[in-house]
Design goal:
Largest sheet: 5 strands, antiparallel
Radius of gyration: 43 Å
Strand order of the largest sheet: 4-3-2-1-5
Number of helices: 9
Mean pLDDT: 78
Order of helices and strands: HHHHHEEEEHEEHEEEHEEH
Low-confidence stretches: 313-317
Number of domains: 3
Strand content: 15-25%
CATH class of the largest domain: Mainly Alpha
Shape: rod-shaped
Number of strands: 11
Length: 317
């Protein structure tokens, strides 16, 4: 009895193996063609990926973004080849299941790595728009410095204090970004105070003529001095002039030379740069200053002294 069961079992296995072998031989040409399709798509993906990367490098000037986009395109071509090969084998249901599974997995990854994905997309967008390049001086989100490295997820900025700040690309993409290098020029503003006794027009002309003598000043016809407002001790002027930026003379050095030179020029022209002056008034309604009080005290003391030195005595009987 047991022998009959074993023979029946092996008979079923042989039948299954024979059917599979017949199906394999029958679909062997399809397998070969599917493998050839996969190989052809793989070759096409490699060639297309390299070609696209070269084109993107010339267009975007960013090797990171060019490599990423080329890799994504290459992967898409390979996946398309796999799907075509599976469909050629008659595995349409498998292709549909793979597509559905890929969509679910992609959605889950997107939610799990939302922050990373947002930075990556922002990095790609900035690589296409190119709001700044390596070496530019930028200011964004309380960070002010020189761009050192641009990655897909973050940007490295070296501040003027020597610190290296890592800024997520989404911050640069969302917030206001100031690029001080994109125009190649920068305007410097220097406030100057002169005394009320001096002529603002004369001081403005002296400052304008002096600052235009520097070689680092460009657009000399646009150099201007404006009267800003009335200060406590001075008439406040504002000097504007332009420099190349970045240039041989930096922003701080140009401003330093301007401040030092303007002081000397105004002193030479006998124009006073005043310091704060305080006048003390006494009395309930004012009108009596310290000089008047001191003069009154001196007069009173002198009068008393004179009376003491020459006493006048009158006797009456």
């Amino acid at each position: 009895m047991e022998l009959l069961k074993i023979e029946k079992f092996w008979s079923l296995i042989n039948d299954k193996l024979e059917r599979w072998l017949e199906a394999g031989i029958k679909h062997l040409p399809n397998f070969v063609v599917a493998i050839l399709i996969a190989i052809i798509f793989s070759v096409i993906a490699n060639i297309a990926g390299k070609t696209l990367k070269k084109v993107l490098l010339k267009t975007l000037e960013s090797p990171q973004i060019a490599g990423l986009l080329a890799s994504i395109f290459k992967m898409c071509v390979l996946i398309a080849g796999v799907f075509v090969a599976l469909d050629f084998l008659g595995l349409t249901g498998t292709v549909t299941s793979l597509l559905a599974g890929a969509g679910i997995v992609g959605l889950a990854i997107g939610f799990a790595f939302q922050d990373m994905t947002e930075n990556l997309i922002a990095g790609i967008a900035m690589g296409i728009r190119k709001p700044f390049q390596i070496g530019d001086v930028v200011a964004a989100d309380k960070v002010f410095g020189t761009v050192k490295t641009i990655n897909l997820r973050n940007t490295l900025v070296e501040t003027f204090f020597g610190q290296l700040e890592v800024i997520p690309n989404k911050i640069l993409f969302r917030n206001i970004l100031t690029n001080y290098s994109i125009n190649g020029v920068r305007r410097i503003e220097v406030p100057v105070g002169i005394s009320y006794a001096d002529d603002p027009e004369q001081a403005a002309e002296v400052i304008r003529e002096f600052i235009n003598q520097y070689d680092f000043v460009i657009r000399k016809e646009e150099t201007a001095v404006f009267a800003k407002d009335f200060g406590d001790s001075s008439v406040n002027l504002l000097l504007w002039f332009w420099i190349d930026y970045p240039g041989e003379v930096g922003f701080m050095q140009a401003r330093h030379q301007a401040v030092v030179g303007i002081k000397k020029a105004l002193e030479k022209a006998d124009i006073l740069i005043p310091f704060p002056i305080r006048t003390l008034d006494f009395g309930a309604k004012g009108g009596v200053n310290l000089d008047t009080m001191l003069q009154s005290d001196v007069t009173a003391v002198s009068s008393n002294k004179s009376n003491n030195d020459n006493p006048s005595v009158s006797d009456s009987n």
